[in-house]
Amino acid sequence: PLTISTTPSDLSICPSETATLTSKSLRAAKTGGKFDFIWYKGTSTTGIVVKQTLTTVTATNYSDNYTVPYTVPGLYTLLVRDHDKPTSVDCQYTANVTIVASVKPTYTITGGGAYCSNATVTPVTITLDGVAPFSLTWTDGTTPTTQTNISTSTYTVTPTSGTVTLTALSDNYCIGTVDATKNAKVTKITQPDFSWDTTTDTVYCEGNNTASLKAIPVTADPNYSFEWRNITTGTPGTVITGINAATITSSSLANGKYQLVVTNSDVPANTKTCTQTLRPRTIQANPLPTYTVTG
Known about the structure:
With 295 residues, the protein is mainly β. It is 0% helix and 47% strand. It contains no helices and 25 strands. The protein has strands spanning 4-7, 12-13, 18-23, 35-41, 48-54, 65-69, 74-82, 92-101, 106-111, 113-116, 124-129, 134-139, 144-150, 154-157, 162-170, 184-189, 194-196, 203-205, 213-217, 225-230, 238-239, 247-248, 256-265, 273-277, 281-286. Strands 18, 20, 21, 23, 24 and 25 form a 6-stranded mixed sheet that branches. It has a 5-stranded mixed sheet with strand order 2-8-7-4-5, with no helix packed on it. Strand 20 (225-230) and strand 21 form a beta hairpin.
């Protein structure tokens, strides 16, 4: 039987590609026999002739091909006939093939964002549109990772930091176009983790205030901000202005109870704030001893 081979063999072509249709190699049953090759867009009875090869020179084997552009996919039929008997139906053979114009896969990237270091990172989701299976290469800006044979339309990654982009994408048929502006940024914010320095004075004698309070971090970070509050009369208390540091000294302290709130954020975006409120500490002023002399 007459057959048609195709390149690519999966019958699918991508933008800017073409498909080559090639007839089976034929040998004439009698010496001097020749074949004509007529290619149709559609069927051989109702289609349009797109190529016609009339063989006038005798050869041992005969074959022909036709190139299908991406813009004209669909059914193609090859009719092969005896050159010397072009109207004889008994000496005609047909074969057909359907070429599909596939589109490039596309994608979107969502998720990520800023998160506190004591919490779980928000996953980054890559949503794929095309024909599975997909293959892709993603990077956090430092380390590229390739994943193949993705059978679903979503793929999730969980980098601890960086900007997630795709550097390569393909589906079952075509290679997609990647775009660096499609991205999701993941920012890890150091969760404040302070404890009180217990070596500082919290008790002093009236008239000689040596008291101070100091908080010590487990992990340093230049973006920490500090808010001291006097909560002697209850919370939320009164903010002590002008002090953005982990230490408060006697000039700002008096007999009473104090609280420190430490915050950190994803500067300069400031889309997420991580907070620690330290347990209150009490500053105690002891009166000086007094005496009387009698007699």
